[in-house]
């Protein structure tokens, strides 16, 4: 075989395969023995056929091959380097450089024999690139340019396949079809995939037959048995061992293995089944609705959602009496009472109960697959209290019914088999006034006291029935007694009418002066109907009454010329009657005043006497009011007196006023250094203020307090005198500020500072004072009014204020 190969340095060389095997893999040529026409002659081989074409003479050792993992004891021979300039006369020396030169690879400098000193691992480093040069042995001059070559390691199968994981876990639904893919496992072999079969892997299953199989070339694990054999309820967990073998699975290949834990997941392939075919329960007859009778259990081999089930009652004689629900936690059926039970009526029930899955899987179990069982419920007898015929009674009685009248009756019986006799009583809490009574033996209710509908229209009482033999067994029933109306009240005027008649009605004029209505406390079924008329004894000369037919009546004057001076009030008696039986009537008297009126009939002036009755106050009340006013006055006077006394109190007690005034006086007193004087907080809290007075130590007095230095008269021209005044004032300020006994609200300081910015004139009063003597403090007179005001407030004398 002749192959054209372009070598690294751009030379096309013809290669001939002479012997041995080779393979082409990827982009580089590998062969055990390749021959190139440049190597001439090939030792021990005269048969090589070569072409006449030659491009270049030179090194011809582009590639050497070396077996990895060499186990021999001597150095492994790789090949021989030869330059065609070497004529075998010993003048040429071969020099090796590059990866591993001198350590891994050694060269015989004379012969060019190349050896590897130790065994090498292809998986560690697949090839080494080296450089060789032929030099003159004597002078070391290179005979030819350096040439690169490669020593390539031949792969041997020295690595076993390794799986990505030591243990795999996988799930597959139970009852899957044959060949359902479960998981893919993959192994890797470090050996050369390009060469030989060292990395050619074949998967096989060594444990897990016959349930699973593995695809030999892909490592995909599949189920190997049919749905009927892959039943989770039979066996849930499987351990499968997969082997990977290199050398294409041939004998002598290396193997690696892994474990795959496969779990079958649940599908709903089992219907629920009752654990018993007959369930027997008993329940007391007094069990309330919702009370649990018992629990039934069905088993389902599936788990989780696939085991969820519903229970239903399908047939039997208690379908409307009982109910069944499912306990979501335990999947049990809970039988409960739906309707009241009665042992005396029915002593036992038989029911058919059914169970089915909530989420059936039609692939495995029919959707209507269900299981049934029989439930028998025995009702237990309970000693029950008497039972009233009705849950409540409404009785009616006329309000005029005589005492002793039977109003009605209630009735109760003992539901138990022995029918104990019943005794009736009235719950006295519901009939405190003992208006009613019940016959203990037959339940007749009697009236004990007269009734009045207008007072109380309903009497709602409770009647208690107790078993005669067992008085603990009681029950009660409400009895609503309605009092029926009887016409026992006469109609009366609806209001107290304030009626008047004007003096100046024109003659001949019949004037309506009032419309009246009536009220009646009775409540006739058809409503009220009132009749009005003038009382027969009432003289008809002055007023008349006209029934308007609509339960109202009008009062008219019959004549004119009413005079206040003659007669100030008239009394008119009106008879009002109703239509009921027995008829009731009353006579009411209207008071009609005579008044002077304006022209349009508005009342102007009436007799005072008539008014005083309704609006006046009794003398007793008047006296009481007067007394109250007097006491109030007394309190006010006392209060004022106390207040006055308070004002006179010494300075330290009326702190609040002081503080307020001082603050408003713009307290510049101590100057800026006197921080405590500015401490409004101290002023607001008297205790703190007193304490700060004691601690006050801003400026210590440097001069005795009294007497102050004599003052000379200050004139406008004299700057020296001004200075004196200033000195004096400053001194005083210091004294005052430094004085531990000084009050914190020193208003004098304000004055002193005024001097600071002033030219002498403004201190005129001070000046005049100073001329009279050192002890004279009339310089304060300008400020006198203010201090007097303060003194007034503090209750002291102006002279007390030594400042
Ligand atoms: C109950 O007994 C009383 C007294 O004997 C009698 O007057 C009344 O009519 C009886 N009531 C009934 C409902 O029998
Ligand atoms: C008594 O019962 C009647 C009917 O239920 C009701 O209308 C009435 O208000 C009740 N009276 C009292 C005082 O509870
Ligand atoms: C009717 O008025 C006259 C004149 O004012 C008077 O004398 C007489 O008493 C009055 N009749 C009645 C019943 O008030």
UniProtKB/TrEMBL annotation:
<dbReference type="InterPro" id="IPR020894">
    <property type="entry name" value="Cadherin_CS"/>
</dbReference>
<dbReference type="GO" id="GO:0007156">
    <property type="term" value="P:homophilic cell adhesion via plasma membrane adhesion molecules"/>
</dbReference>
<dbReference type="GO" id="GO:0000902">
    <property type="term" value="P:cell morphogenesis"/>
</dbReference>
<dbReference type="InterPro" id="IPR015919">
    <property type="entry name" value="Cadherin-like_sf"/>
</dbReference>
<feature type="domain" description="Cadherin">
    <location>
        <begin position="83"/>
        <end position="163"/>
    </location>
</feature>
<feature type="transmembrane region" description="Helical">
    <location>
        <begin position="621"/>
        <end position="642"/>
    </location>
</feature>
<dbReference type="GO" id="GO:0045296">
    <property type="term" value="F:cadherin binding"/>
</dbReference>
<dbReference type="GO" id="GO:0002009">
    <property type="term" value="P:morphogenesis of an epithelium"/>
</dbReference>
<dbReference type="GO" id="GO:0007043">
    <property type="term" value="P:cell-cell junction assembly"/>
</dbReference>
<dbReference type="GO" id="GO:0008013">
    <property type="term" value="F:beta-catenin binding"/>
</dbReference>
<keyword id="KW-0472">Membrane</keyword>
<keyword id="KW-0325">Glycoprotein</keyword>
<feature type="domain" description="Cadherin">
    <location>
        <begin position="275"/>
        <end position="388"/>
    </location>
</feature>
<dbReference type="Pfam" id="PF01049">
    <property type="entry name" value="CADH_Y-type_LIR"/>
</dbReference>
<feature type="domain" description="Cadherin">
    <location>
        <begin position="493"/>
        <end position="611"/>
    </location>
</feature>
<dbReference type="GO" id="GO:0099560">
    <property type="term" value="P:synaptic membrane adhesion"/>
</dbReference>
<keyword id="KW-0677">Repeat</keyword>
<keyword id="KW-0732">Signal</keyword>
<feature type="domain" description="Cadherin">
    <location>
        <begin position="389"/>
        <end position="493"/>
    </location>
</feature>
<feature type="region of interest" description="Disordered">
    <location>
        <begin position="700"/>
        <end position="720"/>
    </location>
</feature>
<keyword id="KW-1133">Transmembrane helix</keyword>
<comment type="function">
    <text>Cadherins are calcium-dependent cell adhesion proteins.</text>
</comment>
<dbReference type="GO" id="GO:0044331">
    <property type="term" value="P:cell-cell adhesion mediated by cadherin"/>
</dbReference>
<dbReference type="GO" id="GO:0016339">
    <property type="term" value="P:calcium-dependent cell-cell adhesion via plasma membrane cell adhesion molecules"/>
</dbReference>
<dbReference type="GO" id="GO:0005509">
    <property type="term" value="F:calcium ion binding"/>
</dbReference>
<protein>
    <submittedName>
        <fullName>Cadherin 6</fullName>
    </submittedName>
</protein>
<dbReference type="GO" id="GO:0016477">
    <property type="term" value="P:cell migration"/>
</dbReference>
<dbReference type="InterPro" id="IPR000233">
    <property type="entry name" value="Cadherin_Y-type_LIR"/>
</dbReference>
<dbReference type="GO" id="GO:0005912">
    <property type="term" value="C:adherens junction"/>
</dbReference>
<feature type="domain" description="Cadherin">
    <location>
        <begin position="164"/>
        <end position="274"/>
    </location>
</feature>
<keyword id="KW-1003">Cell membrane</keyword>
<dbReference type="InterPro" id="IPR002126">
    <property type="entry name" value="Cadherin-like_dom"/>
</dbReference>
<keyword id="KW-0479">Metal-binding</keyword>
<dbReference type="InterPro" id="IPR027397">
    <property type="entry name" value="Catenin-bd_sf"/>
</dbReference>
<dbReference type="Pfam" id="PF00028">
    <property type="entry name" value="Cadherin"/>
</dbReference>
<keyword id="KW-0106">Calcium</keyword>
<keyword id="KW-0130">Cell adhesion</keyword>
<dbReference type="GO" id="GO:0016342">
    <property type="term" value="C:catenin complex"/>
</dbReference>
<keyword id="KW-0812">Transmembrane</keyword>
<keyword id="KW-0965">Cell junction</keyword>
<dbReference type="InterPro" id="IPR039808">
    <property type="entry name" value="Cadherin"/>
</dbReference>
<dbReference type="GO" id="GO:0034332">
    <property type="term" value="P:adherens junction organization"/>
</dbReference>
């Amino acid at each position: 075989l002749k192959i054209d190969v372009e070598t690294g340095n751009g030379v096309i060389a013809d290669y001939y395969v002479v012997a041995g095997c080779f393979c082409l893999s990827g982009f580089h040529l590998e062969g055990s023995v390749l021959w190139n026409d440049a190597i001439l002659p090939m030792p021990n081989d005269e048969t090589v056929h070569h072409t006449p074409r030659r491009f270049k003479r030179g090194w011809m050792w582009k590639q050497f091959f070396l077996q990895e993992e060499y186990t021999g004891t001597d150095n492994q021979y790789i090949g021989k380097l030869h330059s065609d300039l070497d004529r075998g006369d010993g003048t040429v020396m071969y020099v090796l450089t590059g990866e591993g030169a001198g350590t891994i690879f050694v060269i015989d400098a004379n012969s060019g024999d190349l050896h590897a000193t130790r065994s090498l691992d292809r998986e560690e480093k697949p090839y080494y690139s080296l450089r060789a040069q032929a030099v003159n042995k004597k002078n070391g001059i290179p005979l030819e340019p350096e040439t690169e070559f490669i020593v390539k390691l031949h792969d041997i199968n020295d690595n076993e396949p390794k799986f990505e994981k030591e243990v795999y876990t996988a799930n597959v639904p139970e009852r899957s079809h044959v060949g359902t893919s479960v998981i893919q496992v993959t192994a890797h072999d470090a050996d050369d995939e390009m060469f030989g079969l060292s990395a050619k892997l074949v998967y096989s299953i060594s444990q897990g037959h016959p349930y699973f199989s593995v695809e030999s070339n892909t490592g995909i694990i599949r189920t190997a048995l049919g749905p009927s054999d892959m039943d989770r309820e039979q066996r849930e967990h499987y351990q499968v061992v997969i082997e990977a073998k290199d050398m294409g699975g041939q004998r002598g290949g290396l193997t690696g293995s892994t474990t795959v834990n496969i779990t079958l997941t649940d599908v709903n392939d089992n219907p629920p089944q009752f654990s018993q075919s007959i369930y027997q329960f008993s329940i007391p007859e007094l069990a309330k609705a919702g009370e649990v009778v018992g629990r039934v259990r069905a088993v389902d081999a599936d788990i989780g959602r696939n085991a969820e089930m519903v229970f239903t009652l399908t047939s039997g004689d208690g379908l409307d009496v009982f109910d069944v629900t499912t306990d979501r936690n335990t999947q049990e059926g809970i039988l409960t009472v739906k309707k009241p039970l009665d042992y005396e009526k029915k002593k036992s029930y038989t029911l058919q109960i059914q169970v089915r899955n909530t989420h059936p899987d039609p692939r495995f179990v029919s959707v209507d697959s269900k299981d049934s069982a029989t439930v028998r419920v025995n009702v237990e007898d309970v000693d029950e209290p008497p039972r009233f015929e009705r849950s409540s009674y409404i009785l009616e009685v006329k309000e005029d019914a005589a005492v002793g009248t039977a109003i009605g009756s209630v009735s109760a019986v003992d539901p138990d088999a022995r029918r104990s006799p019943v005794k009736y009583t009235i719950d006295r809490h519901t009939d405190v006034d003992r208006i009613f009574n019940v016959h203990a033996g037959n339940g007749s209710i009697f009236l004990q006291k007269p009734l009045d509908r207008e007072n109380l229209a309903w009497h709602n009482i409770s009647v208690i029935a107790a078993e005669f033999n067992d008085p603990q067994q009681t029950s009660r029933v409400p009895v609503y007694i309605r009092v029926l109306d009887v016409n026992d009240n006469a109609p009366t005027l609806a209001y107290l009418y304030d009626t008047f008649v004007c003096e100046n009605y024109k003659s001949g004029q019949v004037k309506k002066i009032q419309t009246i209505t009536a009220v009646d406390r009775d409540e006739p079924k058809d409503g009220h109907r009132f009749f009005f008329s003038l009382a027969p004894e009432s003289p008809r000369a002055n007023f008349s009454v006209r029934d308007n037919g609509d339960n109202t009546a009008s009062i008219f004057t019959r004549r004119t010329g009413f005079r206040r001076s003659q007669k100030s009030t008239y009394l008119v008696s009106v008879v009002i009657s109703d239509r009921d039986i027995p008829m009731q009537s009353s006579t009411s008297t209207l008071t009609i005043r005579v008044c002077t009126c304006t022209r349009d009939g508005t009342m102007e002036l009436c007799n005072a006497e008539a008014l005083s009755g309704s609006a006046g106050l009794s003398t007793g009340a008047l006296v009481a009011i007067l007394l109250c006013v007097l006491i109030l006055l007394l309190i006010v006077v006392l209060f004022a007196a106390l207040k006055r006394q308070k004002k006179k109190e010494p300075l330290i007690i009326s702190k609040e006023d002081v503080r307020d005034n001082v603050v408003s006086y713009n307290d510049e007193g101590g100057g800026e250094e006197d921080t405590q004087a500015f401490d409004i907080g101290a002023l607001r809290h008297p205790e703190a203020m007193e304490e700060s007075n004691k601690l006050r130590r801003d400026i210590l007095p440097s001069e005795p307090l009294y007497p102050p230095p004599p003052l000379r008269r200050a004139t406008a021209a004299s700057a020296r005198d001004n200075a004196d005044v200033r000195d004096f004032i400053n001194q005083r300020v210091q004294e005052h500020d430094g004085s531990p006994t000084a009050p914190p609200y020193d208003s004098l300081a304000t004055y002193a500072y005024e001097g600071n910015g002033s030219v002498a004139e403004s201190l005129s009063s001070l000046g005049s004072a100073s001329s009279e003597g050192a002890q004279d403090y009339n310089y304060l007179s300008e400020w006198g009014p203010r201090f007097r005001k303060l003194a007034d407030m503090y209750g002291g004398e102006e002279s007390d204020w030594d400042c």
